[in-house]
Design brief:
By secondary structure, this protein is an alpha+beta fold. The protein has 4 helices and 21 strands. It folds into 4 domains: 65 residues, conserved putative lor/sdh protein from methanococcus maripaludis s2 fold; 97 residues, Beta Barrel (Elongation Factor Tu (Ef-tu), domain 3), CATH 2.40.30; 61 residues, RNA polymerase II/Efflux pump adaptor protein, barrel-sandwich hybrid domain (OB fold (Dihydrolipoamide Acetyltransferase, E2P)), CATH 2.40.50.100; 57 residues, Methane Monooxygenase Hydroxylase, Chain G, domain 1 (Up-down Bundle), CATH 1.20.58.
Length: 341
């Protein structure tokens, strides 16, 4: 069947009408509008601590070593040589005059004995001339005896340089590690002799700047063998004697010397004791936790919580310890300092 143009237009119009009546559309279907999401405001929370008044103290809580305040280092002063014998070791007790070490001297002892015989011979010759009454022979005999004595003195002095004696009673706290035949240099320390009746404590640190606030006379609590004693600082790095040896200056530049006050224990040289020394103390000062103090580009400040708002306040801090920080200026007691801001 063939439709005319007019008939086609009539059919198309009818189709569109049917689509409209049936609710169909050529346009996409509109989506339903959703309600906007609702946001619940989250309140900020802060960890705070109140500014409080209290006492702060920075102290040294460590150990110190017992040493003698009368220690003598001994060496061959004038000449070295080959070691013949070392008679002491660390821990030995010695008396003044004990022979500590000896250098090789070859046949020098034999030469001394022979020269002593020569001196005796010259004495006898002098006596003969005195009996003879020959004045000229007497003069020559006296000269011969004088010469023999000079040779003997020279040999004995040479031999004496090879012998090292203890200058005092005491305890050997150091002995050089030497064996027979080793070369010994002049003025090289062979042994150290300490007086065990003259004991003090030595506290040494790797941070000498931490000792700067300590002054002579500072009180020290000492614990040894479960007993407590009192002591005081008698020397700091700042008070090392100017005439001390270079070795002592280096040693005491990072150490405190502590004496017992009153009763003291029989503590052997080399033993350690526990010490507690107050370096700095502050009483009745404003204190905050260390985590509350902030530093940025040279500025020192804290954050304070005031009526729900954070404020930054510049402060001046003082003594800082593991227990807290002293606030010299900038805060008042009771303020809430933010710790996690």
């Amino acid at each position: 069947m063939h439709l005319t143009g007019k008939a086609l237009r009539t059919c198309a119009a009818a189709g569109i009408a049917i689509m409209l009546l049936s609710g169909c559309s050529l346009l996409p279907k509109e989506e339903e509008l959703l309600d906007p999401p609702s946001f619940q405001k989250k309140e900020d929370t802060y960890e705070t601590a109140a500014v409080k008044r209290g006492n702060l103290a920075r102290y040294i809580d460590s150990t110190a070593t017992a040493e003698s305040d009368r220690s003598v280092s001994v060496s061959f002063p004038d000449a070295g040589g080959q070691l013949k014998k070392l008679n002491v070791q660390e821990g030995d007790r010695v008396k003044k005059g004990d022979l500590l070490a000896e250098l090789e001297t070859g046949d020098l002892p034999l030469q001394i004995r022979l020269q002593k015989l020569t001196v005796e011979q010259k004495k006898l010759e002098l006596q003969d001339t005195l009996r003879s009454g020959d004045t000229e022979a007497q003069k020559l005999a006296k000269l011969d005896l004088s010469g023999a004595n000079l040779v003997l003195s020279s040999l004995e002095a040479q031999y004496g340089q090879a012998l090292l004696y203890s200058p005092a009673d005491g305890l050997v706290t150091y002995a050089a590690s030497l064996k027979p035949g080793d070369t010994v240099e002049a003025q090289s320390t062979i042994a150290a002799i300490d007086d065990p009746s003259r004991i003090h404590l030595l506290y040494t640190t790797i941070e000498p700047d931490s000792l700067a606030p300590v002054k002579p006379g500072a009180e020290v609590t000492i614990t040894y063998d479960k007993h407590t004693y009192q002591g005081k600082v008698v020397q700091t790095p700042a008070t090392v004697p100017s005439n001390a040896s270079e070795a002592d200056k280096e040693k005491y530049a990072k150490a405190l010397v502590i004496d017992f006050v009153g009763p003291k224990p029989a503590i052997p040289i080399g033993d350690t004791a526990d010490i507690k020394l107050f370096v700095e103390k502050r009483d009745n000062v404003l204190i905050i936790p260390r985590s509350g103090l902030k530093n940025f580009l040279g500025r020192t400040y804290v954050q304070v919580l005031d009526k729900g708002r954070i404020k930054e306040l510049d402060v001046e801090s003082g003594l800082s310890t593991t227990d807290g920080v002293e606030i010299v200026q900038g805060l008042e007691e009771g303020m809430q300092v933010v710790l996690n801001g």
